[in-house]
C-alpha cells in the first residue's frame, strides 16, 4: 500500500520505515513529520557505537563524562525522545523474567539495633508492602542497616554500588528532623514519612490531614459533637503537624463555645492531668494518634465507649482494635517503591530539584470503642 509520497503505508495509517540496523518499525504518521531518531543516529552523530549510547543514556559509570556530554549534545541536536511503548515493553520484560539476576532495592534502616525497626508494626507493614510490590515489578527488596559497627556513609554507599544496587528506600528514621549522608548522585531514592528532613528527596506519606478529617466526619455521623484531641508531641513532629492542622481547622469551623483545647502530652498521661482536662473540656469523644492511648484513658477511670467514644488514627490490625483510621501502611511502602522504579526507568539519579510527594489515603474502620449516640445525650454521662 502506497501513500501520496510513494512511501509504503500500513493499513492503520502508520508509515513504515526500515531502520539502519535492518529492524522495522511502524510510526504513527499523525504524531510527527520528522524522521524517527534512533540510537544508531545518535551514535553516528557522536562518533561512538550504539551500545555506548545505550550505556551513556543509563548513566553507566563505565562511560567517560566527556563521552556522556558528547552523546547528550547529539541527543539534543537530533531531538531524540525515548519511545514510551518500547519503555513499557522493556519494563514488562523485566518484570516477567525468571532466570536472570534480579535487581535489588535497598531498604535502609538506622535504628540503634539492626532489627529494632521490626518491633514496630507500622515499620514492618511498610517493608512487607514495599517488598511484595518490588517483587511484582521484577525487583528484590533487601534490608540494610546503616548503623553497623565501623560503617560510614561513604563506605555504605560504596558497598551498595559495588553490589549493583542503584535504588534506595530510606525507612522512617528513629529520630525526627533527621538527616542522612549518602553518595546520593549514585542512587534513585525515596523515603517514607516526614522524618528525613535533609536531603529533601521524593517521599511517600500517609495522608494524615485527610485521615483526621475522615475520623472527625465519622464520629460526627455517629452523633458525637464535642470531639477532643489527645496529642503526643513527638508523634506530632514526626507527622509534620498535619493531624494537628486538620483538627485546628475543624475547631475553627465550630462556634467558639463548642471549641475544645488540645491535650498535649509526652509519651505518658498523668491520671490527674487527663481528669482535669476532661472536666474542663467535657468531650463526648476523643481522637488519639495510636491505640496505646486507650489503656492510658482506661487507667484514668474513663469508661469507653459508655462515657466517651474513642478513635485511633492508626488502627485496624485486629478485629477488636479501637475504631479509627486504618492507614494501610503497606500501600505507602508500595508508593515509595514506585517512586524509585520511576527514577530508574528514567535514568534519574541524585537529589531531585523538585522532589515528589505521594499521599496515600487511609480508611475508617468501626470498632468497640464507639457507638451511635443522640446529640447531647453523651454529654450527660460526663462527670461534673
Can you tell me about this structure?
The protein is an alpha/beta fold and 384 residues long. It folds into 3 domains: 14-94, lambda repressor-like DNA-binding domains (434 Repressor (Amino-terminal Domain), Orthogonal Bundle); 103-201 and 331-361, Response regulator (Rossmann fold, 3-Layer(aba) Sandwich), CATH 3.40.50; 208-327 and 365-381, Response regulator (Rossmann fold), CATH 3.40.50.2300. The protein has 12 helices and 16 strands. It has helices at residues 39-46, 50-57, 65-78, 84-96, 121-136, 153-162, 208-221, 233-238, 242-252, 271-281, 293-299, 329-345; strands at residues 14-18, 24-28, 103-109, 139-145, 167-170, 178-179, 188-192, 196-198, 203-206, 227-232, 263-265, 285-288, 309-312, 323-326, 357-360, 363-365. β12 (285-288), α11 (293-299) and β13 (309-312) form a beta-alpha-beta unit. α1 crosses α2 (50-57). The relative contact order is 0.11. Mean pLDDT is 86; it is low at 1-34 and 378-384.
